[in-house]
Amino acid sequence: MNKKTMYTILIILGVALIIWFLYSWLSVRAIEEPKYEVITTAEGYEIREYAAYIIAETKIIGAKDRDEAARKGFPIVAGYIFGDNTSKDKISMTAPVNTEADESEKIAMTAPVNTEKIAMTVPVNTEQEKADGTYKISFVMPSEYTLETLPIPNDSRVSIKEVPSHKVAVKRFAWSASESAVKAQEEELLAALARDGVEIVGAINVARYNPPWTMPFMLRNEVQIEVK
To answer: For 195, phi and psi rounded to 5 degrees?
Structure first.
């Protein structure tokens, strides 16, 4: 391989990396997130107070872990926001996608039809409801909609409900959101909360904010748990 060919390859790779970076960055700039206020910042975490929001949710039973639950549940809820509803509206996606662990794990560690197009919001939530592998996968609906103005899902596995205002402790991390990586972050968060005497009242949730094609170092992931 001569120098000219090598330089050409390097230039192509450089351009491809720049495009990948820009696409990773631009793809999340306009995505809506649930509204919250940071009320406490401490070593290893922050505490946020979220305003009430509406989610579209499905349950996955018998999943071996969060990743399997998300793979099975995501297309079910995504179908709703992509038009599988009574008015065939497309809903813009928001961020993040959430995966919430069950209560037993936490304890052990201590309808009019709308004809408008609806933007999809985030997060998508994956919450483990029971120790038998039952998870809840949910997407947050855009803030301009109410329970009355959202279209009705065609798929009976999808339900629409309001999540009341609540406080959560949050630990942010990048790169992998694999089961082992999440477990390590979860343990660190729970240890920090125990250190500071913060009382937890909910289950661990894993929030993923980026599409799968994002550059790994730009991934924004969070472990969250509701607190008093």
So the answer is: -60, -40
Give the model's pLDDT for residue 89. Answer: 87
**What are the CA-CA distances from residue 135 to residues 74, 80, 196 (Å)?**
12, 18, 29
Closest of 156, 81, 139, 79 to residue 114, by C-alpha = 81
Q: What pLDDT score does 25 carry?
A: 54
- Report which of 219, 185, 228 is spatially closest to residue 204, judged by C-alpha positions: 185
Contacts of residue 77, defined as CB under 8 A and 6 or more positions apart, other chains included, come to 56, 57, 58, 124, 137, 138, 139, 158
- Long-range contacts made by residues 68-72, C-beta under 8 angstroms, separation at least 24? 69/99, 69/126, 69/128, 69/133, 69/135, 69/137, 70/97, 70/99, 70/124, 70/126, 70/135, 70/137, 72/137
Say whether pTM exceeds 0.85. no
Token duo for residue 152: 């009705």
What is the number of other CB atoms lying within 10 angstroms of the CB of residue 106? 19
Q: Could you read off the pLDDT of 167-190 as tens digits, one per residue?
A: 999 999 987 778 888 889 999 999
